[in-house]
Amino acid sequence: MKVVGVELRGGGGGWRAMKSFGLHVLLGRWFMAFAPLLIMSVSGSTYIFSVYSNDIKSTLGYDQTSLNLVSFFKDLGSNVGVLSGLINEITPPWVVLLIGAIMNLFGYLMIWLSVTGRVAKPKLWQMCLYICIGANSQAFANTGALVTSVMNFPENRGSVIGLLKSFVGISGAILTQLYYAIYVDNSKALILLIAWLPAAVSVVFLRTVRIIKTARQSTELKVFNTFLYISLGLAGFLMILIIIQNSLRFNRIEYVGSACVVILPFLPLATVLKEESKIWRRKEHPINDPVQEKVVAENPQILEELVLPPIEAQASERKPGSCFSNIFKPPDRGEDYTILQALFSIDMLILFVASTCGVGGTLTAIGNLGQIGKSLGYPDHSIETFVSLVSIWNYLGRAMSGFASEIFLVKYKFPRTLVLSFVLLFSCVGHLLIAFPTPYSTYFTSVIIGFCFGAQLTLIFAIISEIFGLKYYSTLYNFGAVSSPVGSYILNVIVAGRLYDKEALKQLEALGLTRKAG
């Protein structure tokens, strides 16, 4: 009898073999790839803001402009992760994850205490601070988990970013199902759930998420494709579940049954065990290792990079000098830029403007989709359906843009920047459907806007890694995300919020009513 390729010579030896294999799995590269999937699957609390935002508005007496300001600070916190990037440059990933867990627990716990009246009513700036801190924990989770995964699988960065970002996109639906199962319709309790659950998951995997230096395996893309298929099944199950829940009225027992969705994110663990068992057997029988031989034959440069990383190679070729003297003398695209070289480059400026308009516009549409549906006369269950399904389309956009752009790039030399241009053009169709609505057009709008929002994020982060290199990716990744809250503030708070309140005042005046400040 054998256990994962280890011959048993008795009960004691068998137990030692099993224990050794278990330790091998926990310390393995593929279990490290699995851990970020779970971290990301519960880190999308910012995407379900619309579920509990009405509690904040009604309990604390906010108008639409004030609520939009809170929403802006939510977007600001979730996207401005420069601090997490800088911390990740000088500390191991577990430090970043731990700080993020603490921030998540503090920020959302204070919001829950405020909304439930357990503390004195906070001022608007305090609520903005709480949600900014809580949402900023998402940036720490992204930096600690996603950036580390890209470092471990640089040859499949598009697939890795697309997969992990897709789990963030679908996490809103996962958290919603857990909330229904535990609290039914108590939306204030949802705030408590998103305070403790993401923090707990990050703490569990603190020692798992780390950079592992090893040669690339030829089966990497196949494994990530398997992860993708599992996540597609999860997304399909959630989509059907959301439609049924919004069509029928579930009771407590039925909601608890629907919470079986929490099992699905653990399915990739079976693939992890399979891949780690193969590695284990090769370690036990290293005479013939076709996988490693194939890697050497197909990608000899990878082993060279392990011996002499590009950073050191470039440093040895260049003359020493001040870092400021080289700001406007960047290396070729694809090599490792310094942080200042990247920030002052025309490439970063173009990406910043594109994502400010693109991501900011789609965020504004998503944030106001419920109110758009109500103004167009959709029934409440229809509004709940297409608002809930935005997270599914968001997931598909993230996943498909990552894997599809990787295929286009490798097979057809089709650059990701051109794919991003097509996605931006496609998002304009969604905005036009909002501006010129037709019957049932809002359903198509939710599909287009959700898909394009997710696709843009994946493509932008992959493009940053390709143009500016991976040496300072944890910082540049977060600099690239800054454009999202900037666009959200300009388009959602300044433009949409003021237009909304202006029209609301006209309607009040027509009814002979006046609005009091506060």
Short structural summary:
With 518 residues, the protein is mainly alpha-helical.
Characterise the protein shown here.
The chain has 518 residues and is mainly alpha-helical. It has a single domain, classed as Growth Hormone, Chain: A (Up-down Bundle), CATH 1.20.1250. The chain has 23 helices and two strands. The chain has helices at residues 11-26, 29-41, 49-60, 64-79, 82-90, 93-115, 124-152, 157-183, 187-204, 220-247, 252-258, 268-284, 290-298, 300-307, 310-317, 339-343, 346-367, 369-375, 380-412, 416-435, 441-468, 473-481, 483-510, and strands at residues 2-3, 6-7. The chain has a two-stranded antiparallel ribbon with strand order 1-2. Strand 1 (2-3) and strand 2 (6-7) form a beta hairpin. The longest helix is centred in the last third of the chain and has 33 residues, at 380-412.
First CA to last CA: what distance? 74 Å
Number of helices: 23
Order of helices and strands: EEHHHHHHHHHHHHHHHHHHHHHHH
Shape estimate:
globular
Low-confidence stretches: 1-10, 289-321
Transmembrane segments: 26-49, 94-115, 160-183, 189-209, 221-243, 255-273, 349-372, 417-436, 442-464, 476-500
Protein name: Protein nuclear fusion defective 4
Membrane topology: Multi-pass membrane protein
Pfam family, one: Nodulin-like
Topology summary:
Blueprint: E1 2-3, E2 6-7, H1 11-26, H2 29-41, H3 49-60, H4 64-79, H5 82-90, H6 93-115, H7 124-152, H8 157-183, H9 187-204, H10 220-247, H11 252-258, H12 268-284, H13 290-298, H14 300-307, H15 310-317, H16 339-343, H17 346-367, H18 369-375, H19 380-412, H20 416-435, H21 441-468, H22 473-481, H23 483-510
Antiparallel strand pairs: 1-2
Helix pairs in contact: 2-7, 2-8, 2-12, 3-4, 4-7, 4-23, 5-22, 6-7, 6-9, 7-8, 7-22, 8-9, 8-10, 8-11, 8-19, 8-21, 10-19, 13-14, 17-20, 17-21, 17-23, 18-19, 19-21, 20-21, 21-22
